[in-house]
Amino acid sequence: MDTSTNSQLASLRQSLESRLSALQAELLAAQRARGAAQDEPEAGDTKDLADRLQHDELDEAQVHRELGAMAAIEAALRRVDDGSYGDCIDCGEPVGLARLQLLPAASRCAACQGLHESRWSRRSE
Ligand SMILES: [Zn+2]
């Protein structure tokens, strides 16, 4: 990304950082909620337990997603620092400002991201 985009880079950095702290706050709140649930006295029948386990699974999936999003944001912030932010990690072409404003943690241009996702979806079939 060239120096004429410094102010845009600063605002993208800001949105990355605010997203990261929002996710951290969410995870902390989820952890606290889970801690509180575990402190509950044991009570209820199997159905209650099943309900609780289901909730735990949902939480875990959510936590997993949020950790993944945080890792992507942290990686993007590292790229801001080393100057490679805004360049596609696959082809090296600019990711594009519009795409970065929509997805500040994007590490690939739209074309490479599409290829990447189709590779993954084929693999999981
Ligand atoms: Zn690319």
Can you offer a commentary on this structure?
By secondary structure, the chain is mainly alpha-helical. It has one domain (3-123): Up-down Bundle (Four Helix Bundle (Hemerythrin (Met), subunit A)). Helix content is 73%, strand content 0%. Helix 1 packs antiparallel against helix 2 (46-82). The structure holds zinc ion. Residues 88, 90-91, 93, 108-109, 111-112 line the site of zinc ion.
H and E order: HHHH
Give the tally of structural domains: 1
The helix count comes to 4
State the major sheet. none
Oligomer: single chain
Radius of gyration: 19 Å
- What is the SS-derived class? mainly alpha
Give the CA-CA distance, first to last residue.
Answer: 37 Å
Q: Could you estimate the helical fraction of the residues in percent?
A: over 70%
Instruction: Write out the CATH superfamily name.
Output: DksA, coiled-coil domain
CATH topology: Four Helix Bundle (Hemerythrin (Met), subunit A)
The outline comes out as elongated
What ligand molecules are bound, each kind once? zinc ion
> Could you say what the CATH architecture is?
Up-down Bundle
Low-confidence stretches: none
Q: Got a strand count?
A: 0
**Level-1 CATH class name:** Mainly Alpha
Query: Beta-sheet strand percentage?
Result: under 5%
